[in-house]
């Protein structure tokens, strides 16, 4: 049995040696990626910024638009991976590459043939929306099973890296050469650490259901909203619990580039840690076979985690920005300014 990703490993090692960019300007790398494509692949990969496909996101196996690693030559694979690396923080890159490789493990867990393309580590799609490096807004997406990474830029600056979904099936590899591998171990273990730090009285506020919901509640909704009940407030935690809660939130934000993390951290400082709350549903036992769910809400951010399916060995996590998913109101206002009636009137003069 082999679980190696069927992309030349030299590509990952090559890209790993590239210094992680502290800049938010992804446009040069996106242009390089587009420039590496032939006419047919450009038609598959490129959409107008306002195309409805930009909001057509999901994290389940399904038919998708945009070329995949199957379509790329070595140069194109390298350009695609370089864009991916620059768009994420190091933990985000590590998790993304691990999610790719889990498809081979899942293929064998499900006893699928070696040529099966339902579980396929190459079946991840790249789409670009708008013209990177131009005078207008643009974005891009990387998506496949258990992965949906959406990035939106105001010309040269990332204004949104959400919705951001990462999942793991199996959550814990139970057999084979990769036995005990756990791609989202920190998200699981730190969530339980937060729960287990609570007193009985605190748990009565934080735990809103004995049974976990079947999946993340916001699913692939276009517009996410705060969920009820809200759980236990940050202000109701003692200093050690507050520190642990901050570390859990920071764990999720570390998936993003340092520059984008900084934007979110500025918002947290502005709105205050006191805006956050932690809620739990399901089992309090950290073990396969014990379904559980938690969520974090605050500073207009919503983070959901669940481990329910496949005998509670199948993790979903998502980060939603209630202000700026897909660029939010900021890019919408810019687009309306450039393309709305006032803009058209000026162009007609």
TrEMBL record:
Q: Which residues form the signal peptide?
A: 1-21
Which Pfam families has this protein been placed in?
DUF3500 (PF12006)
> Known InterPro entries for this protein?
DUF3500
Which keywords describe this protein according to UniProt?
Signal
Report the protein name in the record.
Answer: DUF3500 domain-containing protein
What's the source species for this entry?
Answer: Cyclobacterium jeungdonense
